[in-house]
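quick one, two chains, predict together pls
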Amino acid sequence: MVESPVVQGLRAYVLIVGMWIRSTMAYRTSFALTVLGNFLVTGLDFVAIMIMFWHTDVLGGFAVAEVALLYGTASASLGLADLTMGSASRLGRRVRDGTLDTLLVRPVPVIAQVAADRFALRRLGRVSQALLVLVWALSSLEVAWTPVKALLLPVTVLSGAAIFGALMVAGAGFQFLAQDAAEVQNSFTYGGNTMLQYPPTIFAKDLVRGVTFIVPLAFVNWLPALRILDRQDPLGLPGWLDFAGPVVAVGCCFLAGLAWRAGLRSYRSTGS
Amino acid sequence: MTEAFIELDGVEKVFEVRRRSGRRLRRERCTVRAVDGISFAVPRGEMVGYIGPNGAGKSTTIKMLTGILTPSGGRLRVAGIDPSRERTRLARRIGVVFGQRTTLWWDLPLRDSYALVRRIYGIPEARYRANLERCVELLDLGALLGVPVRQLSLGQRMRGDIAAALLHDPEVLYLDEPTIGLDVVSKARVRRFLREVNSEQGTTVVLTTHDLTDIEQLCRRVMVIDHGRLVYDGGLDGLHAVGESERTLVVDLERELPPIAGVPGARTVRVDGPRQWLAFPAAASAAPIVSAVADRYPLVDLSLREPAIEDVIARMLESGEGRRSAVP
């Protein structure tokens, strides 16, 4: 009986994640403190946004609750991606110290093992903080809800997570060649997240174009959130693009898969 | 001839490295032939030692045999599988122990690491239990199963790692420096276990090591690699012949005498009071030399010293280039 690599990979992922959670629980107090720390530290950048709104009522034409919607969706997406795939960015270290080899001799896909490696439940801190902000935003906003909009919101968070996750995997693939490249990838994921927490109207149009068509971060939350808020996007793009998040996410995952395979292949022929 | 289980035919591995040169931070490309055309075959059930100095290409060969690295040239098959193309499929049939990198879970009891292996490899419950029981008994792991791995000694952890590599009944076991850093007792236990696995289960074993006692006690066949080339492939005794090694006859005479002379095939290499040392080729018989000495000298006692295998290999590698053609 031969299972598909996807099923095998998912099963291995879950098993390894379980091992790491139990390892973490060997140090319960330390775990509780890091979750709390994570929650507070990620909360700080929302505090920064609140402070800004003490001095102004609107930012780029957006009210505080609207910015909170952007913040909550972007941060929840990044948090989910970081929780499930973030460990892949440690790949460079494994390449350098040679422990990647021990993963290559197991009968399960390497990406599943790498993504589950040192799985850190403390990253739930960011997710829960983002969801709190999101709940607050939704309760303060006066949105004309329709079934389409209500569905668009969770779909947006999930496809946003997939886009961030794809960036992390692609970044990991690149680390086969350059082991210290984690920072480049961080500038797209963490840096991108910080940008997406603010309204697109405050950024230069070329930057908005760049994150729409080159690194498609605008699909993480900007475009769908503008639809929920009944606003026009600064580039005047066709309206159906607001719903393109899942398609973009699938495309990103596909490209990330290619980048990962290319990276792994180059490792196996250079052994660097 | 027995069917070859591991087969290498002119296998090469060339790395391209960039090196800074000169003052202008210009980087020069150059190639390193880590494995430079190696051919050998290992039949199923054999236990072979793979030795050579650091950087000779041992680990690179093991990595190609496990599918971690893709060869740059030549043909390579393990159990009929091309390792680099079907790495994941091969992984179910091989066990690997990297002496210096544990695969056990640091903060969890040893038992948990084994449970993960069982589920990752999908080992049937009954088989898993039987294998674990055998490993626990032979490697004396019983008291350690509930202990977090971080609290194990190096020797205990190595035994734990070897057991982890065998739970899925691999047909071949690769061990990269399995006794490195272990004390004498742990080494002996590991060796006894490997002999057992090889003879009882018929597991093919490929072993790299710096500890030549491992080879002497475990392997009938030894392969020596240097600068990416196989410089010797054969039995341990043959190694002595190729290495031009000598045995030493130590004789205690009744009194101090001038150096013993006129014994055909032997020469006196050292005199210390009534004791004298005679060297002769390792392949030659000691009997005629002993009787020649006993006939003409007042002999009190004698002993025979075998050549140290370290010296044999060192001599063989020193004599380098010329001997490369000596590979059968």
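Residues 23 and 197 of chain A are 34 Å apart (CA to CA).
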